[in-house]
Amino acid sequence: MSQQDTRGLAAILVPAILATAAHAQDASAAPAKPIAQAKPATNAKIATQGQATPKPVPPGGFATPGMPARSAMPQQATDASGQTSGFSSVFNPAFAFVVDTLADYSDGDGDDGLELSLRSAELSAKSWIDPDAWAYFVAVAEEEGLAMEEAAIHYKGLGDTHTLRIGRFFLDFGKQMQAHVHDLRTVDRPLPLRAYLGSELGGDGVQWDAWTPGGETGALRWSLGVYGAINSESEDLEDLGIERELGGRKELGDLAMTARLTSFMDVGEDSTLQLGASWLGIPSYSAEGGNEEAEDLSQNVVGFDATYGFGADGEDKWTFGTEFLFASGDTTLGLDGGGDLVVDDQGLTGFYLYGDWAFEPNQSVGLQLAEAELPRLDGEDASELDIYYTRHISEYHRVRLAVRQSSIADEDTFALLVQYTGFVGAHAHGVNW
Amino acid sequence: MSVVKRLWLCCIAALVAAMPARAADKLKVVATIPDLASMALAIGGDALEMVVLAKGSSNLHQVTARPSHLVAMHKADVFLQVGLSLETSFVPALLEGCGNARIQPGAKGFVNVSEGYAALGVPTEVSRKDGDVHPHGNPHMNLDPLAGEHMARRIHAGLLANLPSEAKRLDEGLAAYLNRLAEARGRWELAAKEWKGRRVGGYHSDYDYVVRAWGLADTGSIEEKPGIAPTPVHLARVVQRYKELQPVLVLVAPWSNNSTVARVVEQSGCSVCELPSRCDAEGRLFDWIHMMDELHARLAKGFGTRWPPVEAPKAESAAPAGGG
User: Fold this and answer.
1) Mutate which of B71, B73, B219 to test chain A, going by most A C-beta atoms within 10 A?
2) Which residue among A52, A217, A393 sits closest to B68, beta carbon to beta carbon?
3) A43: helix, coil or strand?
């Protein structure tokens, strides 16, 4: 840089620094207007717990010597102009953030040792679009990177109990495929669901969902979905280097479909029973592996689920559930001894069953047994036994301790898992059906 | 007439006969807690068909939405809630899922009883670092001895908007209820004269409105923050404080009368007083005034004072269920 350049730069920077300093001085001199006027405390405890004195924040914020003064946040409310504009935040969606961490110690015939990981960090937002529709997204950062797992619009204008869901979302299959893994009762999704549907099963498409009362104490719900693309994660296939193509442009008859019918009813004063049946049909998909491609593959998965819950509010609660799955079609992909892609149309079955006991409102223990014929060329069976303890430290963070005994063919693995999950921001309870 | 036509007619007749006779003129009301149901029934009587969602005495934060709740909400003409996020564990999901535009917020069938009520402890800064804070303030409004009239008037206004044809009956119902309430309040105020300045503690903030109403001296909660289980360090501080401030009467609800409270009471030497936390959907405390009578009777017992207070006007005994 020449001397002339340096002088020019100084000529620009010095007045700018002086102006910034003057601005910071003005800002610190002017008392900030409190956001809300605190109401007088009427009770000593309330005053100390809920009514912390608001700290005035100078518009320019705090800056240490040698550091640039932080600029004031723009005024985004509507009061300045009397109009809502592109800078107004009053209609912004509600955001939520979930951090799911896992410590996993394994001992067995597979990968041994301790692994500490941030399993996922999830950011989501939701808001009403207008009186008939609301939209949301769920973006998840995992080991593989950042993914938009869900982004959809719920259109409610079809009628009181009808919803049209359009976009990318988790498929309505069985009791728990609609939920994200960190929201489950167990550390991982049960074995047969992972084996036949993937640990998470999303789709790009349209789903119609409706329900109707069945008497005074029950309801019948159904859904039908059509998808141009299915996003199903399979660790087994990833390990083998096989990629399935479940999306892309296709004929109308080749679109994937789901259907679910479920009834949910009170049984006596303190119990509920839910029975359901689900179907996923993928009429056409292709796979690539070992420098080969297989086309016009198809697959169907049918599932039946039952969940019984018992326990009055505030008392011990018991939940028992089971789900049976049948997969048919081109279910099994693998590589032969020469590294060529092989497709097998095995019919596969699997199930899981569990019992959970919530002995305190914030603490529960459970046991889950799962078995499945794996979609592998060697036709191996696998089983998993999970014993888990969950403690909600508060409604917004949870720790789970679990032990798992897994058997695949003759290989046994013992794992000790500690899962810690925190939920931040907008948080809501749904009707679980 | 052909056989086919006759068969059709028979089928239609059978279907019509099988259709449940709609309780034609009755207003279908869903109330989140029995307290609101008892007031509504006292005002509207048999013009209402009532369903109560949270029946037990459990912590309302742990109520689970059930299929029958969803169906009741779907069919309701009027929905009564306390609000102030008291029923946040089950109401938002039910409102969203019930598919009933008549009772959605803003519709005339949606009655938020706490609207216009000056709640205690409205936080100026809403942060989870303060525990399970309620942005609209302390939600246990149904335990405020002074809130009865506000709740009754809000319920009356909600019912009237949806059943104008029964205006006379509703007005009379409200007047009769307010008379009973005034009489009861006289009893409570008289009894509470002897309690002013008495020291009380508690597990949660359920009874802050009672503390405010009767000028009791609050010595702090066993919970460090609302909804957060106390740490051992905090418990030690509470025990120490209760010891220093003896005598302290620890007010607990049926759901919070737990082993932690027992330990604190044992170590500090203070005494515990279990109070009702809301009306009982099926028992003798269905009526809100009866429930508050019971609350004051137990407080009197805890403080060792007279109940019923001697100079109180003679209380008229009222029928419990459906009350009035």
Assistant:
1) B71
2) A217
3) coil
